[in-house]
Amino acid sequence: MSTSAETVSRKFNIDTVENAAKTPDTELPWAELGLKQNEFDEVVKVLGRRPTGAELAMYSVMWSEHCSYKSSKNHLRQFGEKVTDEMKKDMLVGIGENAGVTNLGDGWAVTFKIESHNSPSFVEPYQGAATGIGGIVRDIISMGARPVAVMDPLRFGAIDHPDTARVMHGAVAGIGGYGNSLGLPNIGGEMVFDSVYQGNPLVNALAVGVMRHEDIRLANASGKGNKVVLFGARTGGDGIGGASVLASESFDDTKPSKRPAVQVGDPFAEKVLIECCLELFKGSLVEGIQDLGAAGISCATSELASNGDGGMEVELTSVLLRDPTLTPGEILMSESQERMMAVVTPENIAAFEAVMDKWAVEYSWLGEVTDTGRLIITWEGEVIVDVDPRTVAHDGPVYDRPYARPEWQDAVQADSFSGSVQDAGRPSAPAELAAAVAELIASPNMCSKDWITNQYDRYVGGNTALAFPDDAGVVRVDEETGLGVALATDANGRYTYLDPYHGAQLALAEAYRNVATSGAVPMAVSDCLNFGSPEDPDVMWQLAEAIRGLSDACMELGIPVTGGNVSLYNQTGTTPIHPSPVVAVLGKLDDVARRTPSGWREDGQAIYLLGTTAAELDGSEWSNMRGHLGGLPPKVDLAAERALGEILINASRDGMVDSAHDLSEGGLAAALVESSLRYGVGARIALQDVMDRDGVDLFTALFSETQGRAVVGVPRSEEVRFTDMCTARGFAHTRIGVVDAASGKLEINGVDALSLDSLREAHEATLPKYFG
Amino acid sequence: MTELPLIGEAVAVAANPRLAGAKIGVVTFPGTLDDRDAARAVSLAGATPVALWHADTTLSDVDAVVIPGGFSYGDYLRAGAIARFAPLMSEIIKAANSDAKLPVLGICNGFQILTESHLLPGSMIKNDHLKFMCRDQVLRVENNSTAWTGDYAAGQEITVPLKNQDGQYIADEKTLDALEAEGRVVFRYVGFNPNGSRRDIAGISNAAGNVVGLMPHPEHAVEPGFGPASLDGVGGSDTDGLGFFTSVLNKIVGGAK
Predict the structure, then answer these.
(1) Which residue of chain B has the CA closest to A681?
(2) Which fold has domain B17-253?
């Protein structure tokens, strides 16, 4: 409780609406809060007067790049426009809510979303990464779902740069420390090292949740007289201005440290919040619910009110504080974690409070839903905010940023790896090829990620059927029927740098292929678009091309984008990161018992390569190891991806394959090693038929990154049925070898035999070598 | 040719009405994570799980209690230090020490709570490598005469998942000597000590053998398709942990298996 003396002194400093109308010429710190002159002028125009300090705080965070998508909105529209009936059939909630919802059948629905927490994770890796998990999990709860798994695609600077270890240790420990404490299995993700991410590491986080159809909740405040409640953690001074200050600006050494803008997480509070919300949903005790993430109370009140049918009136001094000295503006902007806002009917107040008391969660009633169409916020009864909530939440500025194909793009695309200086001495002798395979699978991007994933709990919940390093993570949803979901995330910044339109499509194609490889039917897409500054026309072109490519490819694959986010300004000085659209695809398995793991186990099983191989080394891991980036990325063939997907899904459903692994970074060489190491079972491989048919040499057969390919292990009894299916569908398939359980080796004709022990040692030694 | 195990196809224990009457309580504290897993393990073993809430003041006539893993109260203080004071813990301590000798199993955070409650000696500190670790761990059953290990052979090696941050078991030398002398070291880590635990100790019991605590998670190795063999390709089966739950059932319903 505040003393009356405090109340008086705090009240004295409050800038009311009345005061704002009387003092039009008061100087306001709009530039420091991240607003541009034209944006501030627009706020004044919308209000018909200068904003109060509290209103300025709200507009500045809600109109930030992070919250308003002002630079990308014009392009993102394509995800909503390029939608076919096929894409709509299973979509229960589309883009725009906290997360999209997809129908799984049997009354089940699934919601998932991927988001960035890049800038905070560079400034303060542990808390940045931890609160990234916290935020995305609250998005999932807000939809009425029980979160069931998380995944973390990570992109850091050069593996041997001293600062990479700081970010790596902090981010991985933060993801583990927070995610493990929530009881959510971490089932996959990515780890890429590239110096382009040195000052701008990408820490993306995905969460998936499931619910019964009737439990779907939306973020809106409707019904005059319904009460507005804030519950969970208290509001403190952490993360003030995080969205506007951190996420909408590029880093620059010359400015003071922004550490205080990073939020601090409390996973225990979040775990309790999850259980408490699920109990609220079970009792149908909330009408609308919204998590507090970026822009905190500003965002929650304005979004709930503008999505509802009326207005909202709240008393800001009712907010429970950790720090009683916070100003109204700071309270509105604070990004303190583990908070939720809900709308409750008067009849449900007692039941709501009983749930809060059971879980010992603090709450305070802030106000109620009105029919005025205005969002009114008072401080000790005096009006400090009086706005149309739509102008805050939805009608922010939209920019048509200029963009143009960079002048350097042609030169980059003309610089093919083949024949380049870096291509000199390409391996061809058996010993050279064996050394090349060993070097590849020990390289930073292809090495074992156990050092990371062993710090995450993959077992909790008891429903994990596949996890990293399999192509997709698979979790069971219904214990009676075995119904489950599969998830994969992918991106290739190098491909996207070479060709943003096709690079983004390749990310989607790979995630789609990974999901199909596990046996699941791909259903929906969530994307996290990580790019540099939109004020650079080169970067803006990359963003526009990537969105156009992604939306076109979604149409062709027949799966809709249901949510995601955009992270811009990922650049240091004038040097942007590689354009990195991280694409998550969600698929469905009618029975997770039929999931296909990525490794083979049974002696004597036939190994088939599906798809054809072209000489595509530009942008590849091999060229990366040799320090080359140029040329054109592998060709995109979405029809082939769909055909391959159908084969893998049918083969899984009908028990025709026991293992399947997609070919992507590192090509066939990486896939063969990974499939052997998965369960420590060797194989004998001969690629002559592939080389003859496709007209490629052995090196190319092993290291090319041609898309639309997979290796599968087929039981002898299923071989005829399997090959008949491939033939009937006109899909290229070649028997390239046999599983050899006794040898302990990967033997490839024309390559010196590689013992699995030495491969494993090379594969697993890299991360411990750099990170201890 | 052995087929890849189909998930959920074969439950290791056939339904047995005699066992289904047995009620095993699973305790939930704020921050408990593996309570649903423990309840599933109880069901798969053939018994009826009963949800117990930390604030309850009665044990609801359960025949045994599992205190599952997690981070009770966030473990911001010493792991288990706050949970130990829950009203339900007083009931569990009383019942475990009574003549009826209620069987109690503490897994991970549950083990930490049992040491904080002084039902078991020693304590757990941060792993020696200072990181959270999730791995499939081979354990040797050193004592198969406790309430929770009767269905294993003495010396049997089993593979169950291990996942914790504060898993390093410590006690003074005298206590460790006594535990060994009295056969109260129930499980030892085999091949690799994942956290620096003294004398490779993974789990211990009280003198009567009704209270057992261990850091690894048997409840994550109870169902074909979801255990270490399927997920990671290690160990002989996915269900090495099921024996904990069948052991206590056989103990409860008495003798004949």
Answers:
(1) B233
(2) Rossmann fold (3.40.50)
- The partner residue sitting opposite B9, judged by closest CB among A267, A467, A593, is A593
- Both A350 and A242 in one domain: the answer is yes
Question: Are residues A439 and A337 part of one domain?
Answer: no
Q: Are residues A302 and A415 in the same domain?
A: no
Question: Which residues lie closer than 8 Å to B111 by C-beta, 6 or more apart?
Answer: B120, B124, B203, B213, B214, B215
**pLDDT for A295:** 84
Report the gap between the CA of A597 and the closest CA in chain B (Å).
Answer: 9
Q: Which of A75, A117, A578, A628 is catalytic?
A: A117
Residue B73: list chain A partners with CB under 8 A: 268
pLDDT for the residue numbered A237: 83
Q: Among positive and negative, which fits the CA dihedral A323, A329, A335, A337?
A: positive
Show Cβ contacts of residue A461 under 8 Å, excluding neighbours closer than 6 positions.
A148, A149, A183, A184, A185, A475, B36, B37
Q: Which residues contact A356 (CB under 8 A, 6 or more apart)?
A: A231, A276, A362, A363
* Torsion region of A249: left, alpha or beta (phi above 0 gives left; psi -120 to 50 gives alpha): beta
Nearest Cα residue to A566 out of A524, A525, A532: A532
ipTM of the prediction:
0.93
Q: Give the tens place of pLDDT for each residue, A161-171.
A: 999 999 999 99
Catalytic residue among B54, B108, B220, B223: B108
Residue-wise pLDDT tens digits, A169-227: 999 999 999 999 999 999 999 999 999 999 999 999 999 999 999 888 877 878 899 99
Domain count along chain A = 2
Please answer yes or no on whether B134 and A455 come within 8 Å at the CB atom.
yes
Which of A187, A459, A656 is the best substitution to test chain B (most B C-beta atoms within 10 A)?
A: A459
Per-residue pLDDT band at A746 (split at 50, 70, 90): very high
Beta strands (DSSP E) in A352-463 are: 363-370, 375-379, 382-387
Q: Tell whether the model's pLDDT for residue B257 goes beyond 70.
A: no
- The per-residue pLDDT for range A261-311, each reduced to its tens digit, is 677 889 999 999 999 999 999 999 999 999 998 889 989 999 999 888 889
3-state secondary structure of A221: coil
Range of the domain at A701: 411-447+596-772
| CA-wise closest residue to B226 among A450, A207, A592, A206 | A592
Give the confidence band of A2 by pLDDT, cuts at 50, 70, 90. very low
Chain A residues with CB-CB distance to B70 below 8 A:
183
Shortest Cα distance, chain B CAs vs residue A66, angstroms: 31
* CA-based nearest residue to A297, from A22, A599, A54, A609: A54
Two tokens at A129? 């990464």
Tell me which of B3, B6, B7 to substitute to probe the interface with A (most A C-beta atoms closer than 10 Å).
B7
Q: How high does pLDDT run on average in chain B?
A: 91
The answer to whether the CB atoms of A462 and B74 lie below 8 A apart is no
Whether A458 sits inside 8 A of B74 (CB atoms) is: no
In a domain, A484, yes or no: no
**Residue of chain A nearest B132, judged by CA positions:** A455
The tens digit of pLDDT for each residue in A510-569 reads 999 999 999 999 999 999 999 999 999 999 999 999 999 999 999 999 999 999 999 999
Taking 70 as the threshold, does the pLDDT of residue A680 lie above it?
yes
Q: Say whether A293 sits in a helix, a strand or coil.
A: strand
Q: A514-529 burial, b if ≥16 CB within 10 A, otherwise e?
A: bbbbbbbbbbbbbbbb
- What is the sign of the dihedral through the CA atoms of A297, A298, A301 and A304? negative
For residue A5, what pLDDT is reported? 38
**Do the domain assignments include residue A436?**
yes
Question: Cis ω on the peptide bond leading into residue B218 (within 30° of 0)?
Answer: no
Q: What CATH number does residue A663 fall under?
A: 3.90.650.10
B1–A457 C-beta distance less than 8 A: no
